[in-house]
Records
---
Amino acid sequence: MSSKDWLEKDFYAVLGVRKTATGDEIKKAYRKLARELHPDRNPGNPEAEERFKAVSEAYGVLNDDRQRREYDEMRTLFSSGAYRRGAGGGGARPGFDPNDLFQGASGGGRFGGSAFTDLFSTIFTGGAAAGAGPGQRDRRSGPARGRDVETEVALDFDDAVRGITLPLTLRSPGVCDTCRGSGAKAGTTPRRCPACQGTGMVTRNQGAFSFSEPCRDCQGAGTVVDEKCPQCKGTGGVTKSRTLTVRFPPGVSDGQRIRLAGRGEPGARGGPAGNLYVTVRVEADGLFGRSGDDLTLTVPITFAEAVLGTDLRVPTLDGAVTLRVPAGTPSGRTLRARGKGVPRRDGQAGDLLVTLEVAVPDRLSDDARKALEEFAAHTPGAARDHLLARAQRHG
């Protein structure tokens, strides 16, 4: 795929969102499509696989604020006709080819994040990269870095709190086992590109300007493959299943993203791999809730326990703990068991927050009813008398 073809893709349409969509809207649309199109849910469906790749590519650009801004600027710039040959109002000069801009923008057919900025900086600086001294290669030369890959994993509540190591199987682009990423047929090796002498960059003079751009012969890789690997067609990568061992640390929370450096899509022809981002989805627990590093628990107590006080035994993640309920405790009071919550990275742990709820029985025995009636008869005053007194003062 050429850079021009890549640029002309409408990533907003791919995700089904408006150009003015917020980051949350883009993320929600991506997650929905990724779940529907994931290869594990559509085995043997090449159309779903291609759409999954397109959705991932679109999200990779639109989810990054800088790349999204540059993507919008480039599409606006070239759709306006400002660089079309012969356009009025200061149009392109004779001999200027807009495709040159597309060729130089990505260094191998991919939108390189800062490629838009680098493109125009090289136009006016004679092709030298910022901070590059004599003999140094431009930072955009060499094989292109692979794209980042995203996936989701569902964890049980207990596993998320305690931490767990799991095998994660992905079906995504990986390094070709036949050529080991070189793109060359077995028994052959890539040779140094004669056009750029292995630097991946060439310089062209256009009148008063000097343009530095990725070499067209090697697409910025610095090497040329004469006999392509039949397995990967010279790209160095193929789509395959791979299993990774992922460590989820104790206390991982719902929606948290874990970054695995260099475990994403491999770069073309031996280029560095992108990153793998694993988004965690934590399933709800039937007993405990969670608020940051604290666990929450609602425990019923009887009316007598609330009035008289009691020692209350409540469950924790690793057993149980006894809490003292003071006499005269109202319904809704929260007690704190320190250090019985979610483990932290510093080796400490959050707290267990126990909310007490006075349980009202549906039925009473005759003896219980009689005792309660005696209690009511011996209770001085009514609990609501002060409210009625205040209402009379306002009347």
---
Amino acid sequence: MLGKRVLITNRGEIAIRIAKALNELGLVSVGLWTDNEPEAAHLEYCQEWVHLPGNTNRDTYLNVPKIMEIIKANKIEAVHPGYGFLSENGEFAKTLKAAGVIFIGPNPEAIAAMGDKAISKQWAQKAGVPVVPGSVGEVPTAEEALKLCQSIGYPVLLKAVAGGGGKGMRPCYSDADVKINFEAVQREALSSFGNAGLLVEKYVKDPHHIEVQILADKKGNVYHLFERECSIQRRHQKIIEEAPSPFIGTDTKLRTEICETAVKLAKAVGYDSAGTVEFIMGDDRKFYFLEMNTRIQVEHPITEEITGIDLLANMVKSAFGQPLDFKSQDDIKLHGHAIECRICAEDPITMLPAPGKIAGFETTFPQGIRFDHCLYPKFTITPDFDPMVGKLIARGFDRAVAVRKVRAALDGLLLDGLKTNIPLLKVILDEESFKAGHYTTHYIAGVKPQEKVAMAEDARTLMVRVASVEMGQV
């Protein structure tokens, strides 16, 4: 494995994280730069740089023919896709395999089995994994959807069979809602994922979004690295994650059950890399399979913090057929608690993307803070990429310590000249129900922390106005 040339087909903080893992393992990290981002931060960590011409994602990171040309011209022996872009593209994995290039991710068959929500649900049922009541496969028409909704009862969720990130999902509480939303969700799914197929599922009330990290080798061994709670979301997209789940808490029986269920599903599809099995859990503590992400997750650092296991390094080792860093499930222990806050270039009140340029960037963090990011002064965040620019991670002896440390870290993060969600994250971390660990995926809609941010911004604007008057500037 030493000296193998590995191309990173990604950018931003995840490309930096991958490069660090490759360099540590003695591999040659090869980064890409585009016309849209000629001074990308991740290049500093890569041993070699290659130009990927183009100004859009379609012309660059999603352009398989161009990437294959680069692979051939630069004698690339393996590819790490990170997350997003081509990370869950089974055809890309097949193309690499046919060219004799290692895909640092699961085999194409596992991607195909888990990449389509309808097919993955069928696999889950075959494996004896509980699934949310609803359609087994794609529902082609609104009329068929109505019949199914009436049989399983409202509320229901219309959900795209492909993709993720909260797109192509809409709850319905009546026949009228289904009639209004069915074609709208189809259009959104087609626009976002190139697939208009929809599922109809029972909408679980007051749900918790809980996912299990798994890691597998090429010899049929599958391990779990415990669970994460990802219920603090806006527009079905996560902004705060923690491990282990405060909802599961000290219920070791439930923790073992959900983690072993994830392993069972991964074994059923012949999984052989890092991946995440996502579940939805109601207040009755019953859980149902939601989907599987056949890639590394944004929130993987909190699992690394509570287990001490380097997921990226082990993902690479698995791809090359090397032994993992541990020999059995018993070697994987849970220590303390970790929390991750996603730092996004977005308005903290509307929670909509807010592109801009960083005028100043400073950090004064407490001891032990991890900040995975791609930032530097004068770095410009454009609408071309996801607004997430970094991840602030804190580990503590217990949850209270982790919350305190990450909250202090937010105070020590200065990003001047740019709107970010930092004020929103601070309000959430200070809010009593969050501090108590009592929240669901409806937290943002129910607690409305953005309203407190708005009040604070109004007060700040007033103080600036008063100061200007006193100084005779107005």
---
Amino acid sequence: MRIEAPLQYLESRTFDEINVGDCSSLVRTLRPEDIQLFAVMSGDVNPAIVDPEFAHSGMFREVIAHGMWSASLISTTLGTQFPGPGTILIDQSLHFSRPVTIGDTITITVTVKQKFDHNHHIIFDCSCTNQDNLQVVYGTAEVLPPTEKIKTKRIDLPEITIADKYARLQALVARAKGLPPIDMAVVHPCDRESLRGALIAAEAGLIDPILIGPEAKIRAVAEENGFDLKTHRIVNVKHSHESAAMAVTLIRNGDAEALMKGSLHTDELMAEVVSRAAGLRTARRISHVFLMDVPTYPRPILITDAAINIAPTLEEKVDIIQNAIDLAHVIGIPEPKVAILSAVETVNPKIQSTLDAAALCKMADRGQIKGGLLDGPLAFDNAVSFVAAKTKGIKSAVAGHAEILVVPDLESGNMVAKQLEYLANALTAGIVLGAKVPIVLTSRADTAETRTASCVIAALIAHANRAKLASAE
């Protein structure tokens, strides 16, 4: 719940200090996080409240707060403001007039109605009204105020982060809302997660999957897990290597406009993609980007390259950065802030990554890298923390606000990305850029949700490619 400008101290009023007609008010605005926190705390996961799709089909046609969320604010007012600390709630009677929806601002008012000298109880009229001055909850509360005056310092509560990966996935999927599905060649989906990821993406309207692999094996996985393949195309081949070759052939023939890696090794797929004779190369260096939504970071962050280029040269880093900048444009970041990472934030001739960073920044100044704002070398903390950058005296539009992290090599990038995914509960999407089509390249250990998130990015890129082709014609 939002606590706006709290007083440093809480101070109570005793029975003798309170008169009939005295009142106090509190104001709160309902946020989505309040509903989630209340559901977690109470265990009330009524789908009419916590499931947006279910809620939109219900009586109110939108997500509403738990009724007791509003009622709890009455208790907050009584216990922290009036009478204040030490107040004991004896009895309460409430009537719920109308729902509270996300964004509603509720004013809670408690007014002294009656005092009882024999037991020092007080009855309050309680009212909760919304921003339109319409009553949402009203009733009475009987309390026992403190017998002695209490003044105590307000306790600072810990910050709480809602790490709802499913909600963040739905928000990402919404980026592709209204776009027709793209034809995607799914290479060797012969385990549960790779097949499930393709089917979830299809159900979300992101892709029209072409399942390439041994048909008997694909159907066996589907049957074992209860997946329905009736509406999906299957291209029957003998093994994983043939699956990769067939997928590239479909792309070259114009039968698909994106690839998705299934349960085969990355090297096996990429060998076909980069084949000079019949692959999907362009003039641009092929590279990989992890797009990550980290609950503790205020903006999406792109990490490159953590999967394809092992120890990229300066020339290769130019393409790696340009690929990432182009992706940032596709997902709605007009001028991404690019942090070129190293172990330190100063140029050191003994550390090659700092020399590369300095050169890359100057290349951007000269227009050799376009569309982004580059700075480096920057250590990881300076790139993502404005406080860390300020402490070290770094003045930069990128430091503390990075949207693209360019890592020195594959090892460091892979470690950073996996740490964010497994220790910070980041929602992760993986995409290969620089080829003729986007390639969803995920780990065999990745979940179907990660694969679905990657399909969103692939769909956005494919539609951007269509738009470029149309404008060129």
